[in-house]
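Hey, weird one. I pasted the Quinone oxidoreductase, NADPH-dependent sequence into the form twice and got a warning about non-standard characters only the second time. First submission, copied straight from the form history:
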Amino acid sequence: MSKAIRIHAHGGPEVLAYEDADPGQPGSGQILIRHTAIGLNFIDVYHRSGLYPPPGGFPLIPGGEAAGVVMEVGVDVDRLKPGDRVAYAVNVGAYAEQRVIAADRVVKVPDGISDEQAAAMMLKGMTAEYLLRRTFKVKAGDTILFHAAAGGVGLILGQWAKHLGATVIGTASSSDKIELAKAHGFDHVINYREQDFVAGVLAITGGKKCDVVYDSVGNDTFPASLDCLKPLGMFASFGQSSGPIPPFSMSLLAQKGSLFATRPTLFVYNARREDLEASAAALFDVVLSGAVKIRINQRYALKDAGKAHADLEGRRTTGTTILVP
């Protein structure tokens, strides 16, 4: 019997139960995967806590990012075969030794990228891809601000943005995290516990401010993030680790310089198969080229998912973390 982490009610890390869970057999258009590595992301915490409604209700197997090997394919699946190495980023269901998933939601992992790297970068790396290449098309000469620079998305996006020729500014909470971010493409990192980050951005840019702010923190960094933007700049809010942004008047965007604001999600950006393939291909290419390096900073056994969640919420992790079945 396959094992999985399941949630039967919202709560803290203690609600993550390690249980028997039959993955079932693949139906039409589906495949059965044996996971070899599973990614850990803050959205998993949101699903566990109830901040985001759990898709499909309870019991819920959380987790949206993993890599593994195809065990079986259902009818009408001709793109994949048993033994293929695949990876994916979906909504939930990854905290399991095995799972059935729609074949059109996975991509093949190319040679040169390990299963652990793939599991560690699909959700975070494709998030970086759409933020940099589609939400706001970063180009050489742009100046960007990214909050939580030492987090999983930050360490990928920092390298990628630097590769594109941008000046990359980040925020972080400790000297260790600042050094980590600087080793991953960030030109400047502001310790937001010791310095007002708006003042830091103004000093770094000589008062010119940024073209775009990427913010997954939410409540703690809003509305100050808007004060870091040039007129006509873009505020991209793609998470809320400190809590949701409170409702605000649209006139605030006018007052701050005719700003643009958006709340993008990976699953909308990659809803079409062709967009998913293009996003994954761009990510694989930039990793295989060496421009972006994927390092795994923490590993936990799948059964210890509760400790992994506690460490993530307690800001005791940096960069990328995986669960190992």
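That's the output from the first submission. The warning seems to come from a hidden character in my clipboard, not from the data itself. The chain has nine helices and 15 strands.
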